[in-house]
């Protein structure tokens, strides 16, 4: 099946995709991990709580990478959902927002605030960019692999496999991705249908 984008645009898209993955490593892995360690050192419970919630939600990005390694079309949908859920998870909690706002001004608080805004803007912009590629989620695997507009997004995950899982079969990685997605969906449904009804926008339930 022919690509739904012209070849000239595909070339520019490839550059953007690689830059996007590099930014994702920085904004969604390196910085929040550093902030979480910093929060534990400073014993800032509100920031710790917020970042633990972030990591739970952002785990969908890791699941997406494993699904993309196996070239499973639904990964384009999970990527879009993850980019939407991350900003929601960072700003949704009334009690944590208030606790963090009331913290004494410090480099940690300033860094967290800067990161929250940066990762929010990055993910919302990513949602806009990825909306046209949701079409890839509804293709067959063979169509996905033969369409340059779609498989250009798979190149960075394939490089990840070569570095970290060179001997793992794609089928096994796909199984891990699907298993993670099922577990994630169960916990998300439990939160929406049960915990959200009980706690509302309070992360602590108080």
Instruction: Tell me the structural class.
Output: mainly alpha
Poorly predicted sequence stretches spanning 5 or more consecutive residues: none
Number of strands: 0
What is the mean predicted local confidence, pLDDT? Answer: 93
What distance lies between the first and last C-alpha atoms, to the nearest angstrom?
54 Å
Q: What characteristic shape results from the CA principal axes?
A: globular
Percentage of β-strand residues: under 5%
Order of helices and strands: HHHHHHHHH
**Estimated helix fraction:** over 70%
Outline the biggest β-sheet: none
* Rg (CA only): 18 Å
How many structural domains does the protein architecture include? 1
Number of helices: 9
Descriptors for this entry?
mainly alpha, 206 residues
Walk me through the structure.
The protein has one domain. Helix content is 78%, strand content 0%. The protein is mostly helical and 206 residues long. Helix 3 runs antiparallel to helix 5. The protein contains nine helices and no strands.
Layout of helices and strands:
Elements: H1 7-42, H2 45-69, H3 75-91, H4 94-102, H5 107-130, H6 141-146, H7 148-151, H8 155-164, H9 170-199
Task: Please sum up the structure shown.
The protein has 206 residues and is mostly helical. The chain has helices at residues 7-42, 45-69, 75-91, 94-102, 107-130, 141-146, 148-151, 155-164, 170-199.
